[in-house]
What we know:
Radius of gyration: 19 Å
Structural class: mainly alpha
Helix content: over 70%
Distance between the termini: 16 Å
Number of helices: 7
Amino acid sequence: MREWSRRRVRDAVWMLIRQGITLEKIAMSIALGVVLGTVPVLGITTVLCAAAAVAFRLNVAAVQLANWLACPLQIVLLIPFFVMGGYLFGTSTSAQDAAVVVELFRSDLFSALGCAAEMTFYAVLAWLLIALPVMFILYRTLLFLLARLPEGNE
C-alpha cells in the first residue's frame, strides 16, 4: 500500500512537471495551500488560496488540494492561535472567558460579535507572525523532497 501511494504521488508530480510546472512552483503551491489553509478564520481559506494562486501564478488545483488537506490542522490550531493572540495582545482567552463570551451572546449579541471579532483579529495577527517562517521552512523542505523523487513511471 505504501509503495502504491508513493508511486501515485510521484506520478502526479511528474505529470505536473511535464505540463511545464517547475518543482519550485509545485513546492510553493503546496506550502502556500497548507499555510493559508491554517488561517484561524473558518470559511475563508478557499477564497484566500484561489486569490493567492492566481496572484502568484501558481497551480490553483495544487494550492486548493493542500488547503483542503490542511483543514484538520486548521481546526486543531484554532484554539492555540486564539490563546497566542490573547497572550500577545494582553487579552485573556481562557475557558472561563469563553463561558463569559457565550453568556454575552445570550444577553447582548452585538457586544458578543465585537468581542469575537476582536479575538479573531488577534488570532489572525498571531497566525501572521508564524505564517511566513513556517511557509519558508515548508517550501524549502518540499523543494528538497521533490527534487529527490525518482523521475518517470518505473
